[in-house]
Amino acid sequence: MRKLLIVTLCLLLSGCVKDFAIFMVDGQEHSLTVRRQQNYFWQDTVEVQLMATNLPQCQRLHTLSLDTPADEVTVELFSAGDGVWNVRMGDQLWQAETNTCNSLVEMENDPKADLGQPVGKFEVVDDQLTFVAAPQAAASAR
């Protein structure tokens, strides 16, 4: 009976989504990470979080959404320069900075606003959260 209970629990927990993707700004110490996490196997939605890291100065976790469909996570990233990043998820827009990581400021999402240089986006590819570099950002990295 105990083995059956353990196997059943493992099967129930195996349905949970919990993954992340990283954009490395300048090596492992300076990065932006988006994480999606399904808290319970029966939920169809995930919690989406942004981790701003610039070690050793700072590391801060910010919640972007609590109820996004697991396969519809798309977070766009724009560089506004000097450690300032514009982050867009759906119709929400935030500004984060990685110099002190002190704040994530929600902004008005004006479609005509200049958000800065597109860096790429975090999106679900083959059931895995992945960072996909913007075409011009990938070309300049070569």
Notable characteristics:
single chain, six-stranded antiparallel β-sheet, 142 residues, globular, four-stranded antiparallel β-sheet, 10 strands
Helix/strand structural class: mainly beta
Residue runs with pLDDT of under 50 for 5 or more positions: none
Q: How far is the first residue's CA from the last residue's CA?
A: 58 Å
Using only CA atoms, what is the Rg? 17 Å
How many β-strands, per DSSP? Answer: 10
Strand content: over 45%
Describe what this molecule looks like in 3D.
By secondary structure, the chain is mainly β. Helices cover 13% and strands 54% of the residues. The protein has helices at 2-13, 135-140, and strands at residues 18-24, 30-37, 45-54, 58-69, 74-81, 84-89, 92-97, 104-107, 117-125, 128-133. The protein has a 6-stranded antiparallel beta sheet. A 4-stranded antiparallel beta sheet has the order 1-2-3-4, with no helix packed on it. β9 and β10 (128-133) form a beta hairpin. The chain is globular, with a radius of gyration of 17 Å. The termini are far apart. The mean pLDDT is 86.
